[in-house]
Amino acid sequence: MSLPYPAREEIARLTARMLLEIKAVDFNAETPFTYASGLKGPTYVDCRRIISFPRVRQTLMDFLAATVARDAGFEAFDNVAGGETAGIPFGAMVAERLGLPMTYVRKKPKGYGRNARIEGVMTEGQRVLLVEDLTTDGGSKLSFVDAIRDTGATCAHTAVIFYYGIFPETTQRLADHGVRLHHLCTWWDVLEEARAQEAFDEDTLTEVRTFLTDPRGWQAANG
Predict the structure, then answer these.
(1) What is the pTM of this model?
(2) Does residue 134 have a known ligand-binding role?
């Protein structure tokens, strides 16, 4: 297992750069994106694109494995679980790098059998790392964590490539559930790198900063 250890700030910058390069992120202040929640905003991210870019994929998975090992410990886990669906490929790749068994967690029970939301072998007492592509407010993570704990395993850590970083209650919400969040970059890192690259016009970047500073206020003002 080869784990590079660049500085945390450099990991964030390079992750943001790669996401911009493969067009996994976009800014559009004139025609806001509609999120799964129904709310709108000028930012968009699709981490699923990463799986189609081998060099970016390899580097980001190295970064994620290194971040988890550095922050949580080298012998902190017995199992890596990917969250259905976007977390499954990333969970598999992180498990490979950490030399651990891989499982995945369904969003809903398949309707029969013991541990109906878990695919693969997860046993009582195992320490499980939950891997997903991103987190917004942490809500979906709690459901996955509960499904893992229902097997008798423990889950005190979740790792994602992208963390929105604009809802201050997210990390506390996870902490209240006994879960620590590990991530590579946030919208603030992407905004800084986009500005450095002059990837978008200044008006767009200014509007995005306004949104990131007060996302709920921006959504109220822009419908």
Answers:
(1) 0.93
(2) yes
d(CA 68, CA 160): 10
Tell me whether residue 139 is annotated as binding: yes
> Does 55 show up as a binding residue in the annotation?
no
| Cα 45 to Cα 105: distance, rounded to the nearest angstrom | 22
pLDDT tens by residue, the chain, 223 residues: 455 578 999 999 999 999 999 999 999 988 988 876 677 899 999 999 999 999 999 999 999 999 999 999 999 999 999 999 999 999 999 999 999 999 999 999 877 666 689 999 999 999 999 999 999 887 889 999 999 999 999 999 999 999 999 988 899 999 999 999 999 999 999 999 999 999 999 999 999 999 999 998 998 888 6
40 marked as part of a ligand binding site:
no
Contact predicate 27/200, CB 8 Å:
yes
Nearest CA-CA partner of 135 in 103, 85, 182, 71: 182
Residue 189 assigned to a binding site: no
User: Would the annotation count 43 as a binding residue?
Assistant: no
Contact 162, 18 (CB under 8 A): no
Q: Are 81 and 148 in contact (CB under 8 A)?
A: yes
Is 119 marked as a binding-site residue? no
Q: Determine if the peptide bond prior to 103 is cis (ω within 30°).
A: no
Rounded CA gap, 218 and 151, in Å? 41
Q: Structure tokens of 143? A: 């459901």
135 is in an annotated binding site: yes
Find out whether 91 is annotated in a ligand binding site.
no
